[in-house]
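call fold(seq) -> tokens
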Amino acid sequence: MKIGQGASASWLTVSLFLIRRKASPYILIQSDRVSKITFLTSIHKPKSIMKKLTTTAATIAALFFSMQAFCQGQFQKESAGSIAFVSGHVMQLAQAIPADKYAWSPSAGVRNVSQVLAHIISANYFFASKLGAKIPDGVNMETLEKDLKTKEAIAAELKRSYEVATAAIKNTQDAALGNKVVFPFPGEYTNMTAILIMLGHSNEHLGQLIAYARTNGIKPPWSE
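ret:
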């Protein structure tokens, strides 16, 4: 096949042209130069095309469902792993800081060690309750930070609060992650947000406790 002599362009792209012929159902043509047009593909019969389409559709469906299976509960599993990591560090620091340092704070009007730990406990119960968890009997959220007065009491309640929080995360269903949650501060939130804020909150106060500990000459146990 030859292009007319008057053509001035040196390159021509003709791709994916489907030409119907009597002798064969379809022929695919591609060209990369003005003077050359190459017939590239052979003929595919309708039955062959349908077979390939069916196979492709089945493969895509299999991939889709396998990805769905993989993703089920994945956010919750990873979040529970993250809370386990940060809670481990918080609880190690709570044990490493001596009881006589629990009243220490960097300045007047700033939470001391005991109050920071009690605040973490209170927040764990608060966020867990937003996910549907039941706050343990005997825990008064309004007075909790004042009720915990000894290192031993704080350590025990800290452990329990993280257990409740972790269970709440794991028990949150995929379908419920987008459910709206009301917080006493501006913005629109969901169950997923509650989990993320819970994680961020513990990490924030872990950093605060590390600073408190190092200021008092206490090295975090995991950095020994």
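The radius of gyration is 32 Å.
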